[in-house]
Amino acid sequence: MGSGQTVAVFGAYGHTGRFVVAELRERGFLPLLTGRDADRLKALAYGTGSATRTASADDPASLDRALAGAAAVINCAGPFATTAAPVIEAALRAGIPYLDVAAEIEANLDTFAHFAGRARDAGAVVVPAMAFFGGFGDLLTTAAMGDWTAADEAHIAYGLSSWHPTAGTRTAGAVSRERRGGRRIVHTGGRLEYRDDAPPALQWAFPDPMGLRPVIGEFTMADVVTVPSHLSIPEVRTYMTAEAARDLAAPDTPSPAAVDGRGRSGQTFLVDVVVRSGGAERRAVARGQDIYAVTAPLVVEAVDRVLTGRTRVAGVASAGEVFDAADFLRALAPHITVELSGSPAEGRSTTP
């Protein structure tokens, strides 16, 4: 549990930020609510006793004031192309760990490129993409690898029942598309390639009960940054169920609507990870509800492990490198169920 430690949440009043704040409270942390909008911060804090501090990514002094006294900071404010670097800089000045929930490929690449050396030299922990896209896929891939030190290819297939994007998701997607000139990204041959052609329409055989579903192949997510950052896998491909991709692309798809007391939407997900080496195959399958809501237990479990010294490296590192992946996934029950097969942990569920 959090033992009353203060964790700053930048962008606390956003859709994902609210889930993160609630999870921090549930885990015994004291969330420090930060962001640009003082009125929204006060509304979120009303009746909870949580402290609030206004801060803006373009005002370093305000970020320093916002992080004063915090044990760590979780950045939930996109677009991360704008916010990640300033908040990381502030965390380094404060001498505290930084975690974010960035799904933007380019923003995550920037974090690794610009801060790896400085964070390592400072002994600081910086964990980007500690969210459903990026961190979760990396944890699953790393756990599926087991005792393998390298593999030929990793395939991460996202079976979403639907995708009602938040305003933040739409903004971040627009920023990413603009930064890469509308091209799409593929990780092949051990490096990123930019392509102008349409992604392939394929079929993916998900585990039951989903079964065979149409997917968009090479629907590239932040996993192409996190997984290759520490695993020797030259081919990393991600796939998205076609219906979810259509939801995301449609301008009139509404934002997520709560269906339970925790504020989760009715969206369900199945993530199917297949890793191959030679003729051998290993697999990890995860199931849960609401990709935005489930980001909260992911990043809060991560901050708990960082603050209790359960990390493997310092510097900028993705989830699968900095944490014990299989143990981390077990800790996510009951939010997510995970099964591994084909590895030394074959037949063992990562839930109790």
Automatic annotation (TrEMBL):
Protein name stated in the entry: NAD(P)H-binding protein
Species of the source: Streptomyces microflavus
Source organism, top-level taxon: Bacteria
Annotated Pfam families: Sacchrp_dh_NADP
InterPro entries, per database record: NAD(P)-bd_dom_sf, Sacchrp_dh_NADP-bd
Domain Saccharopine dehydrogenase NADP binding: 7-122
